[in-house]
Amino acid sequence: xxxxxxxxxxxxxTFFAEDLPYWCDIxxxxxxxxxxxxxxxxxxxxxxxxxxxxxxxxxPENCNYKAVKATxxxxxxxxxxxxxxxxxxxxx
Length: 92
What we know:
alpha+beta; 3-stranded antiparallel β-sheet; 3 helices
C-alpha cells in the first residue's frame, strides 16, 4: 500500500503547494484515514473529509473550508450531469 501512498503524495504535493484541496477517490475506508496519517508523517497537516460516498478530499490548513464545501456541491452537480473527473473544479 505504501507505493500507492507515495504516488498519491507526489500528486497531492502539487495541490498543497498552492493551498488547494486534493480530491482523491482512490482509497476506501480505512485506507483514506491511513493516507491522511501518511500525509501528516510527510509534513502535510490536512483535514480529511468525505462529502459524498465517492468524494474524498484532503484539505490543507490554509485552504478555505467554505470554498471546499461549495466546490463539493458543484462537483456533485456536474458529476450528475455527466462531467468527467478532469472537468470538475478543484476550488471555487
